[in-house]
Amino acid sequence: MQPVRIAIIGCGVIGNLHAQWCNKAENITLEAVCDISSELAEKVGKEHNAKKIYADINDVLHDDQVEGVILALPANLRAKFAVSVLKAGKHLLTEKPVARCEAEVQELIDNRGDLVVAVCSSRYRTFPFLEKIKQFIAEGNLGEIRVVHIRGIGGDPGPRDKEPPIWRVSHEYNGGGIFVNWGCYDLDYMLGLTGWTLKPRTVLAQTWQCPAHLPMRVHETSDAETHAVALIQCESGAVINIERAEYVALEAQTTWQIIGDKGSLRLQLTHWQEGPTEIFFDKANPDGKLTTETLFSEDVEDGINHGGPAIDFANAIRTGAAPRTSLENGLLMQKITDAVYKSAREQRAVVID
Q: What pLDDT was estimated at residue 343?
């Protein structure tokens, strides 16, 4: 199988990571890198053996050797450029969040045609051992799913030593704050592991911005949240309970659980902690007490998740398989995100169409 010839647009921190892993991957040739900063493009391109180095996106769009494009740009730029990539007839892997609103995702779907379009929110679901966990759930071991519980608290590491980036906690530049930055990973992880069978219907949410007495955490123009809580009721009656926060008066803590009427899973999304990654299955026992089984306990290389979306993207192009997270999956997550922000603004429950 011939490697897929990939170009990366955007050579910042995440674009550099994409280039690193594209250079390593057996099913990818790093055909080109592109950045408005020719100096940055040169640095990343030379470091990771890109065949071509561009400073103009149009050079990528008109390069017949480029089959697929990875868009590693801020969300406010990605929507416009993503449509241009598709109109140029090239497959697309877009960074997370997929967009800033439902309409931007729908525009991508309308312009996709027969091209492969994948979303990088799948990043933490690319570890091979998770396929066994997904199958374990699909086999009915948890029974009827009741609650998906997500809590990711980043604590407060203190003020930054330089001005915080303008894009990171901004509705205009990023589509939101902590909920899009990390909540998209949470939703992709849990909805993906359950086979996208949960159908969110009603959302009740609240968000809070960074406290005024904590300077140099977010940019002074920030209008988005650093703390979000949402209760999402699904068509089946299952409930997704999600809380994400940073720069808050709490110790860092994380929880990912899928709770059914027969059993529940205790999971890990990230793998940078000391010691092995562990997944536990707690099972209700009709004849005795709750029992616990360790489904997985191994040291996991955390960095591999950065290469996972691109490798999966290339595989989908060559084999015709669906990407791990499709635009339709991305649209569902965007509908949830839009509903979270609308519920918080209007102080009421919001129904997802």
A: 98
Q: What is the DSSP letter of 326?
A: B
Sign, Cα dihedral of 124, 199, 177, 268: negative
At residue 224, the pLDDT reads 97
CA 52: distance to chain centroid? 28
**Domain annotation for the chain: domains and CATH numbers:** 4-124+307-327 (3.40.50.720), 128-299+333-351 (3.30.360.10)
In the Cβ-directed half-sphere of 25, how many Cα atoms lie within 13 Å?
30
How many Å apart are CA 125 and CA 320, to the nearest integer?
A: 20
135 contact partners, CB below 8 Å, separation of at least 6? none
**DSSP letter string over 70-85?**
EE-S-HHHHHHHHHHH
DSSP string, 228-285: EEEEEEETTS-EEEEEEESSSSS--EEEEEEEESSEEEEE-S---SSS-EEEEEEE--
Q: What are the residues whose beta carbons fall under 8 Å from the beta carbon of 58, sequence distance 6 or more? A: none
Tell me what the mean pLDDT of segment 295-312 comes to: 91
Residues 35-76 have pLDDT tens digits of 999 999 999 999 999 999 999 999 999 999 999 999 999 999
